[in-house]
Amino acid sequence: MGSSQSAAHDFRAENRLTVAYLTVAHVALFIGVILGFLQALEYAGIDLYPRVSFLIKSYYHGLSLHGVLNVLVWTTFFISGFLTFVAVRALGTPLQGLTLGWMAFALMAAGLILAAVPLLRNEATVMFTFYPPMKAHWAFYLGLTLVVAATWLVALTLYRTYSAWREKHPEAWTPLAAFMALVTFAMWTIASLGITAEMIFLLLPWSFGLIEGTDALLARTLFWFTGHPIVYFWLLPAYISWYTMVPRQARGRLFSDPMARVSFLLFLMLSIPVGIHHQYADPGLQQHWKLLHAFLTFAVFFPSLLTFFNVVASLENGARARGGRGLVLWFGKLPWHDPSLVAQVLAMILFAFGGISGLINASYSLNLVVHNTAWVPGHFHLTVGTAVTLTFMGISYWLVPYLRGRALWNRQLALVQAWLWFVGMAIFSHSLHRLGLMGMPRRTMIGASSYLPLQLDWHADLPLVALGGTLLFISALFYFVNIAMTVVASRQPASVEIPTAEAMSGPEEALRILDRWWPWLAVTGLLILLAYGPTIAQLVTTTPLNAPGYRVW
Amino acid sequence: MRGTTIYLFELAWILPSVAIPVGMLVALIVTAYGAGIQVPGDAGRVDPTRLAETALFNEPGVVEVGPLRYEARIVAGVWFFTPNEIRVPAGSTVSFIATSRDIVHGFSLHGANVNLMLLPGRIARATARFDRPGEHLFLCHEYCGIAHHTMFGKVVVEARP
Q1: What is the structure's pLDDT at A248?
Q2: How far apart are CA B45 and CA A191, in angstroms?
Q3: Is residue B3 left, alpha or beta, with left meaning phi > 0 and alpha meaning psi from -120 to 50?
Q4: From CA A311, how far away is CA A241, in angstroms rounded?
């Protein structure tokens, strides 16, 4: 990353933008995890909702807040700040359009506030999936739409920065980290068209009273057009850290730069035409389209396997350089005293299990067993809740000290935090997976459910959900204390470098087409047209918008 | 050449990485078409505001359509299934034909491969066979408002005399 220009430009202005994004992200995560804790306790029969009823009106009110804040706000703000930080440094080029960058932040924050007001007032208790005809306050839909629009402005600033760099380096390979950040935002920009269409053509005019009704299936299909690739929008920034930073933190080098580029291009092309695998149980969609999306979901598993190999090989390279021996024993020689690395390696381990349970979700007929059961939150707490969140925490352990110019307040506490998250999540997620296999539904106030007394086989695992959730909550508190104290109380100057991994095998011998955009974007468009075109065209032309809205909470 | 060993390692990983998903796909096709375990398809459309005048859903309940063959016509709404108890004799094959009168609900029938989303405007359909006497819980597995967790029913499979 350290090209000659970065010495000339100190990136202080860009840092301030990153700090703004990270601040909002952390506030959202903090509120979200408190609500998560209440949910975990409720499963074990400890109902604290009556005590907080002045603020949180019901289990479902809290759950909607938990989902929106943790899965949409924490991720989107963190990613916007982190990838801006990564891209400008990798390109060694100042952000082109700093004002535009701040406008993007302001728009995203305004959208968040607009959506947060009805959400907090219990006027948008519709979960982060907001399936109509359940009808939230219009401000909720408008706010989320503005957040999405703001991410396009972030993408635009990154693209303009890349163009400025490209003009000066017409022959050079795009630096890997910048290439990955651009792929992430390109994929997301295309993916977000689904939710944007859902908002503009269905939910916004309906909530403003301009049209009478809506349609559940059309809305769900547009939602999941965005709803699956959004998980790659969360995950790819974690991969950027695993590929371009973690190898350095493990004192090694990235195994293969071209293979990393190939996997990101595959994510660009295959992340989007797979969304119907969330709708296997939906009526009104033909089975052969569901099956095609199953095929393509298995295809997008391939770049994940490439990532697994490349990242583990890089870790092994570092561990062997530190004296690691044996087929697997080298793993013990990783720098286990570095909280940033530990958090991310532990995130990778749990992510392997999240990948496996995700494959089961995607497996068409097997999905009948697990669809909409507790298995699903069990799965995505390993992916977005650990692979993404614990990785972002690990990144923060060097990024926040770097931005603040002060050392991490307490490294021991950070190590304990990472391990506690790992153990807590293992218990929490394992229990939810088991309960899901026993038919327990997700998004349900289980402790109060009418059928709980009939389901004796659930009773052994429910307290474990609460135990895991409690450990996660304590871990999160340790994290926030450490970050807050680093910002306000740490007096030691930081000696942090930005971890920047070199590659063992660089891009020089790879095909130039890996650094072109149009061929890959064209294939992306074609695959989307093939996988979604007929279904969406048929739904749009034949669906009457006749379902009236309901407020049911 | 510097990259040669790396290239061989890459290849040694890429080949199984292709083989694993392809193998799983084959298993998936075999279960779907060989064993006949299918997800719901397109079973037609219905006007959610006019269910009371629509055949199939104007009189929800269980109908015998042949020897040991039944149709359970179910309407979901906040926060109950109509009917919420379905009685059939052991050995029956039951087609569940369901829709929602208001918002999105779910229909998850324990101990049978029946897992449906119930969307207003759409007819959902799945079939299951019940060989042994006993009770099967079915419940709403999609968040549908403040009393979502009270929405359930059961299939009672009765011993044949």
Answers
A1: 95
A2: 28
A3: alpha
A4: 10
Domain that holds residue A21: 12-444+456-542
Contact B39 A509 (CB under 8 A): no
Q: What average pLDDT score do residues A114-141 get?
A: 98
Taking only the tens place, the pLDDT of each residue in B65-117 is 999 999 999 999 999 999 999 999 999 999 999 999 999 999 999 999 899 99
Whether residue A553 lies inside any domain: the answer is: no
CATH number for position A188: 1.20.210.10
pTM of the shown model:
0.96
Residue A552 maps to a domain: no
Output the CA torsion sign for A262, A265, A267, A272: negative
List pLDDT tens digits, range A279-323.
Answer: 999 999 999 999 999 999 999 999 999 999 999 999 999 999 999
A3 within a domain of the structure (yes/no): no
- What length does chain B have? 161
Number of structural domains chain A divides into: 1
DSSP state of B129: E
**C-beta atoms of A284 and B119 within 8 A:** yes
Residue A253 lies in a domain: yes
Measured between CA atoms, the residue of chain B closest to residue A535 is B42
Give me the residues of B, 48-107, that contact A with CB < 8 A.
Answer: 48-49, 78, 100, 102-104, 106
